[in-house]
Amino acid sequence: MGGGTLIIPQIMKDKISTLDIKITNKCNYACEYCFGEPDQTTDIDLETFNKSLLLAKALGANFLEFCGGEPLMHPEFAKLTAIAKENNFDLILRSNGILIGKYLDLIAKNFQWWEYQLTVQRP
Length: 123
Ligand code: SF4
Fold this sequence. Notes:
- The protein has one domain (15-116): TIM Barrel, CATH 3.20.20.
- The protein is built from three helices and four strands; from the N terminus they run βαβαβαβ.
- The protein has helices at 46-58, 77-86, 104-110; strands at residues 18-22, 63-67, 90-95, 111-116.
- A four-stranded parallel sheet has the order 1-2-3-4.
- The termini are far apart.
- Iron/sulfur cluster (SF4) is lined by residues 27, 29-31, 34, 36, 38, 68-70, 96, 117, 119.
- Iron/sulfur cluster is lined by residues 27, 29-31, 34, 36, 38, 68-70, 96, 117, 119.
């Protein structure tokens, strides 16, 4: 994991089990109800991702949930997955499923839970 030391007050330790991490704002859909304000430009960088994992561990989290936007649109999704597994997180994926075929093996091997969001909109 990336360098650095975090000083976490004792009262904050072991207080969370899961860190939701928004790895991208990009999305390949346009749900009417979306509150995530997706744009087509913003991806988390590796330094910020590593710092987030460090913070999650310091707070006692064992689960990491990849969300967005659409997390499968992050160009380094496979690398982020590998880093998270190297740091012994159990992984959760929240996805709209459109790109699932591209990453099916990777997801099956590394993610404990997949949450699919199904959107039905009137024409
Ligand atoms: S799939 Fe998710 S991020 Fe994308 S538009 Fe729908 S609610 Fe927003």
